């Protein structure tokens, strides 16, 4: 391939780059964003890219149809598919809304018979679909289901029975009908390829015998996350078969009947030299926690969000975990526990503090602003925070922003809606103002507390890298939403609930929504007419309104979901979803 | 029947941060509702403490404009998850510019709101939601149901469907109401029940207790959070006592050290019990009538039939309980 500059000073190609070579080079590119860019360069590159692509990521299953995907990308081996709007996690989306995976599977069975991996998030998956997947795709290897619903353990039986080359079965946090643990016993003796097995979120007991044999014969197993029914001594047996694990989710970390002294379990982890992730730890008490200390030195991710630890229990544990990068906690550890985080974990990049009892107002304190500040002091590398608390101040957040300017994800949930700064009684505008002004790399923001349009003015003005914004019970007028739509150039996902934003706000984004993945607005002041206007002006958007089941005012649009699509209006919309 | 406002006044006085508010809460003198506005002032001043004070707002207790009949009819839906309020997918109503949120939570009986609306975040408003409801353990008889509109209360007392409802005393009603809102806080359902149980049983993790599970809260003076135990998983006081000792051992035995105790002896039951019984802490419970009694005086079955919550109290605070317990058992016998 030779490039020459001709007399006009233009580059020309004297011979074309052979497609095969281009494909080979492009095959090395993994990021789907990069691949999208590559495909826009020119026709040759578009073709080379589409032939070399092995993994396709579809962030909104209704933005494109299976047929279009299959037509463009002939050689896909791995698919990631996301369905329902995120607020469906919090019961804001009625059941039977859609996002059924079956149409995709049907299309893929002809287009991609050699499909190996499927990762689904917030999709509706039936047992029949799982059986279809297991039987129609002979080389199928990896299944990951996160926040999906509609299936039962019978579907898992089908996967275990038929997928002869299964390397990954990752079941997380799904709305699943747990009919028993027999599915695990369906793995045939001949299956030895398993590398990832996660059934931590399933409730029923599996046959320990079957599990032990499975673990023993799968020599490449590197991720094992069991459910709560697996006891400590059972866990010990499992670990003896797979010391090579890199990620472990324990079962219950307490023995009701102490059959022997703790010393019996003391060596359980001493052979696990490769552990970098530890989770589970249900019911962990200080009596048994020391058992994990030998494994702590290499841990980078510790998920304690199921363990109701106190501050001193956490402090003792963390003193062994100096290399932690990611830490998930329950707010039972209190501010004092967070102080320990600040002093023990200087490399920390991600912290998530979940409320142990979010709906019970009898629980004292949890964590407050001072815990957050302590962490920020000791962990300047923090990038990702999810923090549930019951009180916060503007000053504290400003301090936190100063201490940790590298935030990319800042999700603060002051659990009482519309709560002001508890010391000054002022709105929390300055808090989020400080965050967006200081943290220029901010990609994701979730705001809470009492907020006026000021907050949104700050966000629109400063949050130039913001891609995802979650808003609830905030704002004073349409201006709020307008600021954001005008100012945040990189905005892709905007989800709003219970805010006083109306038609003017909605329509101010007329030209913007096609550059975004989606907009969700519920319990705001938007009317059907405005939605119709939007739909009419922008035919490449799907403007969907969910009818309120209780009737009520038909002119109010209670739940609005707007997203760009090349697939046209949904054909599977249930009766309560109106596509305008 | 006492009115809601009297309860509030009690709580306002004790707007501290400890469990001691529960003591003596059972019988209060009546205060008529004209005192409500006065209490609002107190509440305004107490906004500072709002975030840290002990409040018992029932999730769903402040839903305005709720038809009592509608609530009664839909109380069954709470059977599924008696410990935690349901977040129904319906009923998230926003009215206009005010952020007013109706809880879709189907409580057992009507809430009792003096004013029909309540607002968030704005200080100094009088949106008074004076509900007083009493916590009932699932399976237990609804012993004490207080309601500001007292005319409703007597009927509710006999409603068997309320047996699985959780109703709590509403300590104070700051304008930023404690009501349950659909889908808020944004916590996924599998995370709602972390504290549901400590024991390793199949049926509790998703909030569906097995037949006969009887969860009560256990609190301890000085402990930063509560635990819950299933009374039906024990058959004797001995078992309950040792389980509680294990659960709260760190609170009583700061000096004993829990790091890798070599043998089980260092946390032996007898040693714990000695410490517990060594006049440092006593185990008490609140019974159906709202009285605090020492645990152990009545037969086990009678105990679990009437126990609504447990509390590990400092010995000094428990003085005066014994005589009442004696009297009560005399009256019962």
TrEMBL record, chain A:
SMART domains: FBOX, LRR_CC. GO terms for molecular function: auxin binding. Pathway: Protein modification; protein ubiquitination. SUPFAM superfamilies: F-box domain, RNI-like. GO terms for cellular component: nucleus. Residues 17-58 form the F-box domain. The keyword Nucleus applies. Its main location: nucleus. The keyword Nucleus applies. It is found in: Nucleus. GO terms for biological process: auxin-activated signaling pathway; pollen maturation. It comes from the Eukaryota. Keywords: Auxin signaling pathway, Developmental protein, Nucleus, Ubl conjugation pathway. This is Putative F-box domain, Leucine-rich repeat domain, L domain-like protein. The lineage of its organism: Eukaryota, Viridiplantae, Streptophyta, Embryophyta, Tracheophyta.
């Amino acid at each position: 391939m030779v490039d020459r500059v001709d007399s006009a000073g233009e580059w020309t190609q004297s011979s074309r780059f052979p497609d095969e070579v281009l494909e080979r080079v492009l095959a090395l590119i993994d990021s789907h964003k990069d691949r999208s860019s590559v495909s826009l360069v020119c026709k040759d590159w578009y073709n080379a890219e589409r032939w070399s692509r092995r993994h396709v990521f579809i962030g909104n299953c209704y933005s494109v149809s299976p047929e279009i995907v299959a037509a463009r990308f002939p050689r896909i081996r791995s698919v990631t598919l996301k369905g329902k709007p995120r607020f469906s996690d919090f019961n804001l989306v009625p059941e039977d809304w859609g996002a059924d995976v079956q149409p995709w599977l049907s299309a893929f069975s002809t287009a991609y018979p050699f499909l190996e991996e499927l990762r689904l998030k917030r999709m509706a998956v039936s047992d029949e679909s799982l059986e279809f997947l297991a039987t129609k795709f002979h080389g199928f290897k990896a299944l990951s289901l996160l926040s999906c619903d509609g299936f039962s353990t019978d579907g898992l039986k089908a996967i275990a029975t038929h997928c002869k080359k299964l390397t990954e079965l990752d079941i997380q946090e799904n709305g699943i009908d747990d009919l028993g643990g027999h599915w695990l016993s369906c793995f045939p003796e001949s299956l030895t390829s398993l590398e990832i097995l996660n059934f931590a979120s399933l409730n029923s007991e599996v046959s320990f015998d079957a599990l032990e044999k499975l673990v023993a014969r799968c020599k490449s197993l590197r991720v094992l996350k069991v459910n709560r029914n697996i006891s400590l001594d059972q866990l010990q047996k499992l670990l003896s078969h797979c010391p090579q694990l890199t990620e472990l989710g324990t079962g219950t970390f307490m023995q009701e009947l102490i059959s022997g002294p703790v010393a019996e379990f003391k060596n359980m982890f001493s052979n696990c030299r490769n552990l970098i992730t530890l989770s589970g730890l249900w019911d962990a008490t200080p009596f048994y926690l020391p058992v994990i200390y030998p494994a702590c030195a290499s841990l980078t991710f510790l998920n304690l969000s199921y363990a109701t630890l106190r501050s001193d229990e956490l402090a003792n544990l963390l003193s062994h975990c100096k290399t932690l990068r990611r830490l998930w906690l329950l707010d039972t550890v209190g501010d004092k526990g967070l102080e320990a985080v600040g002093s023990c974990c200087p490399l920390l990049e991600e912290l998530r503090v979940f409320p142990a009892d979010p709906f019970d107002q009898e629980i004292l304190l949890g964590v407050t602003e001072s815990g957050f500040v302590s962490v920020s002091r000791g962990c300047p590398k923090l990038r990702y925070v999810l923090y549930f608390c019951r009180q916060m101040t503007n000053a504290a957040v400003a301090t936190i922003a100063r201490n940790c300017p590298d935030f990319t994800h800042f999700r603060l949930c002051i659990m009482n809606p519309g709560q002001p700064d508890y010391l000054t009684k002022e709105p929390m505008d300055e808090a989020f103002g400080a965050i967006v002004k200081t943290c220029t790399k901010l990609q994701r923001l979730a705001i809470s507390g009492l907020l006026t349009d000021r907050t949104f003015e700050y966000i629109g003005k400063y949050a130039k890298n913001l891609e995802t914004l979650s808003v609830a019970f905030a704002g004073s007028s349409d201006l709020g939403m307008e600021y954001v739509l005008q100012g945040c150039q990189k905005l892709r996902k905007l989800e709003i609930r219970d805010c006083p934003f109306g038609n003017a706000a909605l329509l101010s984004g007329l030209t913007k929504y096609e550059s975004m993945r989606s907009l969700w607005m519920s319990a705001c002041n938007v009317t059907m007419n405005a939605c119709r206007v939007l739909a009419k002006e922008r035919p490449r958007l799907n403007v969907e309104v969910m009818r309120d089941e209780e009737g009520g005012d038909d002119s109010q649009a209670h739940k609005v979901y707007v997203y760009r699509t090349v697939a046209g209006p949904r054909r599977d919309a249930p009766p309560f979803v109106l596509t305008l | 029947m006492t009115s809601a406002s009297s309860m509030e006044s009690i709580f306002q006085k004790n707007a501290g941060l400890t469990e001691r508010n529960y003591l003596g809460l059972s019988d209060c003198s009546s205060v008529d509702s004209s005192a409500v506005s006065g209490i609002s002032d107190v509440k305004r001043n107490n906004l500072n403490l709002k975030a840290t004070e002990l409040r018992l707002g029932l999730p769903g207790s402040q839903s305005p404009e709720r038809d009592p009949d509608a609530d009664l009819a839909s109380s069954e839906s709470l059977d599924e998850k008696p410990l935690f309020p349901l977040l129904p997918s319906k009923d998230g109503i926003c009215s206009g510019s005010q952020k007013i949120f109706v809880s879709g939570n189907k409580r057992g009986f009507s809430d009792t709101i003096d004013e029909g609306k309540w607002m968030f975040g704005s200080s100094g408003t009088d949106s008074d939601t004076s509900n007083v409801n009493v916590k009932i353990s699932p399976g237990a008889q609804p012993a004490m149901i207080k309601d500001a509109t007292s005319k409703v209360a007597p009927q509710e007392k006999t409603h068997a469907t309320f047996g699985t409802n959780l109703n709590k005393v509403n300590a104070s009603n700051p304008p930023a109401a404690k009501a349950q809102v659909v889908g808020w806080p944004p916590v996924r359902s599998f995370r709602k029940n972390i504290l549901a149980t400590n024991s390793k049983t199949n049926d509790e993790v998703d909030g569906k207790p097995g037949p006969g599970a009887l969860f009560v809260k256990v609190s301890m003076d000085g402990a930063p959070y509560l635990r819950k135990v299933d009374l039906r998983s024990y058959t004797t006081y001995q078992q309950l006592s040792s389980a509680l000792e294990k659960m709260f051992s760190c609170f009583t035995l700061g000096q004993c050290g829990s790091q890798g105790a070599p043998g089980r002896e260092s946390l032996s039951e007898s040693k714990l019990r000695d410490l517990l019984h060594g006049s440092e802490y006593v185990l008490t419970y609140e019974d159906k009538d709202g009285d605090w009694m020492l645990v152990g005086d009545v037969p086990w079955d009678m105990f679990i039939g009437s126990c609504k919550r447990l509390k590990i109290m400092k010995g000094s605070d428990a003085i005066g309980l014994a005589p009442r317990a004696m009297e009560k058992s005399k009256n019962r016998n």
